[in-house]
Structures are given as C-alpha cells and as structure tokens.
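ok posting inputs for the flavin mononucleotide job
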Amino acid sequence: MGSLLEAPGPHRQAAIYVAGTAPAVPVDADRLRAAAQAMLSPEAFAYADGAAGRGTTRRANRHALDRWQIRPRVGRDITGGDMRATLFGRTLPVPMLLAPLGALELAHPHADLAVARAAAGAGVPMIVSSQASFAMERIAGEMADAPRWFQLYPSRSAALVESLVTRAEACGCEAIVVTLDTPTLGWRPDDLDLGHLPFFFGKGIANYLSDPVFRALLDRPPEEDLPAAVRMFLGVFANPGFTWAKLAGVRALTRLPLLVKGVTHPDDARRAIDHGVDGIIVSNHGGRQIDGAVPAVTALDEIAPVVAGQVPVLFDSGIRGGTDIFRALALGANGVLIGRPLFHALAVAGEAGVAALIANLIAEFDLTMRLAGCTAIAEIDRNMIRRGEP
Ligand SMILES: Cc1cc2nc3c(=O)[nH]c(=O)nc-3n(C[C@H](O)[C@H](O)[C@H](O)COP(=O)(O)O)c2cc1C
Ligand SMILES: CC(C)CC(=O)C(=O)O
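and the output
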C-alpha cells in the first residue's frame, strides 16, 4: 500500500504509516505518554510527568493553548510550502528545537546520545541540558556539525559557570541558554511521595562529574565517592542569589548568542533585552516550578508585542503537536521547544522514537500550515488565530 499522503514535500511521508500497519511509536502525544508510562518505573515517569503542586499550571498550559483557534485561509495555492526559519544565522528545517531535559537516562540508557543522533539526523537543534546524563563533549560527538545549544543552570560557583560555558563553546554549541526559573527546585508532590529525585542517585550530573572545576571541589574523585559528589552537586548546581546583574557575568564569558529561559512577565522580557540578551524563551518549565503560574501561551501573547521583534522569542510548555507550533508562531514566537513528548518518545523507542516524534511533529505542522493557507513561516501571523471562549 502507498502512503496516505501523496503530495510532494520534504517531510510529507514522515508521519505516514502504510495502511494496516500501526506505527511503532504512537503518533498522538497522549498515546505516546501512555506508552511511555507502561514502560517506565513509577519514579521515572513521575519525574518527567510531574508538575508543581496540584498540577494547575501544567493543565492550564494545555487549556490555554487549546483556546487559540486557527482561522484557515482558503482559495490559496498551497502546492509548495517552506517551513524553514533562520535563528542566529543558522537556517533550520522548521522552527523547532529540542528542549533541555535533565536525567534522560531515566527514559533510556542511551539518553542524550540517542536524542543527539535523532536531532542531528533531522537538523533540529538539541539544547543540551546542564543536567545531561552524558558529558556534553560525548553528546556533541554524536552530532557532527549539526546544531546544538547548551543550557546552563547558573551555579553558585562562578568558576564552574565559566568552565561549563567554555566547554560548551569548545564542543560546538551555538548558543547558551540560561535558565532563570529554577533558582531552586519547585514543590513536586509526585517526586516527594515517591521519595525519588534522579540527582540524589547520581543521575543527570555527568556534566559536573566530568568538569575539572567541579572535580577540584571534591576531596576524593567521584569514581571513589559518588555520594560526596552528589552532595557537592546539590550544594552548587543552582544559585538562589542569581540576579539580572549577575547575568552580565555570563554575558561577558562568551560571544555566542545568549538566551534566557523561563520568562513569563513582560517586564522581565524588557529587562532581559536591557541586559543584552540575544533571545528570550517564554516558558513556565512545563508547570514544574510554580503551581498557579500564568499559562505559558498567555505569557507569550503578552510578551511578544513587548519584544516586538527586537530579539527572537522562543516558546515552550505544552507543545504537543503541529497545530501547537502553528499557534505559538501565530502569537509571535520565532520557534518552539519540545519537552515532555521527547522524554516519552525516547522511553518508547530510543533514537528511533525521537526520530519518529520529530518527523511526526514536522509533518503535522507542515499540513497544518498549508491547510491554513500558509506556505511560508512569515505568513503565520496574529491574523491567523483568534482566542475562543474559555
Ligand atoms: C524531565 C524533564 C527535565 C527537565 N530538565 C530541564 C533542564 O535540565 N533544564 C531546563 O532548563 N529545563 C528543563 N526542563 C523543562 C523543559 O526544558 C521545558 O521547559 C518543559 O518541559 C516544557 O514543558 P512541556 O514539557 O510540558 O512542553 C525539564 C523538563 C522535564 C519534563
Ligand atoms: C531542576 C533540574 C535539576 C532539572 C529540571 O529542570 C527539572 O526537573 O525540571
């Protein structure tokens, strides 16, 4: 049997299963999540799925996205279709990146290495987490010249921050993302109930264990005394005293584009620009930090007009399909980050799972865009959507 979609296009066939054959990796985000849950330990699933407090913001992220209604334009020639977008001088096949996710070894033993290979295969940038399960140099080693960025938790140790940023530059990361919404971990009942956080067990700390500055803080090497290294990690990885003024210190360390992640207030978007950032990631960390925080897409709607094109605005927290990508772009985002579905796809089928997820998202976005009458990213503007009833 042929594919269900015959129209020409670079990614068109990606999501398409041959009639009668169910896809190995569920296409729908909810089914993908369920498949991952069936395979993972309760602790691993809870860590990724978990949210702050009662999960109000995690739910609100979806609810708010669903309220935005696409207003398709008809009677247009949609034979072609160009999803490419340029960010910081790099042309991407589609305005989509893989969000930084820590402790991916909970999902799959190949963790970040599998994600890196799938990302590189698709040309979709991977944002390597500070909390990666492999050292960033090994992850980069899987990617040839494919685009990768590095996400930094501003550590209490300025020397460690400098070392991490220097290493990221040296292994070919093309941008530095400073996450500002996690000066300390949020209140996460699922993890608390299970008494489990990956970091306590030495997971997701490979970038620290491989760092000369971090190792110099230890009395004995982590290979001899992992619990002591874990305690040191817990003591230094975050910096509750990190302020806008201190961002200048990170800015001074690198000539790479610097983005801040976790902005939801328009005044903070203004401040970020005043402090010389090159990009803003509107995100509430998938509702994992403050229960009751503003839905991320509502924040995007407020922030995009304030930024008004001065720097690129990226968006995450709730993106589950191609229509969500369309909504975010229509609200002024220059690109989106894929979060939890990436963890789920990795759990279900490793590198192949992530490759399938990426291909499916691109294919659905492609179809959404052209069915809405748009054949170029620039055509996806505010006029293409409206806010529906609550
Ligand atoms: C398992 C997991 C680990 C995460 N680790 C990080 C991290 O190390 N650094 C970071 O900036 N954000 C981290 N995040 C937040 C994501 O980058 C992203 O903001 C969030 O997943 C978006 O919400 P969504 O998954 O509901 O779309 C993590 C999220 C999850 C689910
Ligand atoms: C706080 C980190 C260590 C990991 C993270 O960002 C998360 O679990 O959401």
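notes: The first helix runs from residue 29 to 39. The first strand starts at residue 68 and ends at 70.
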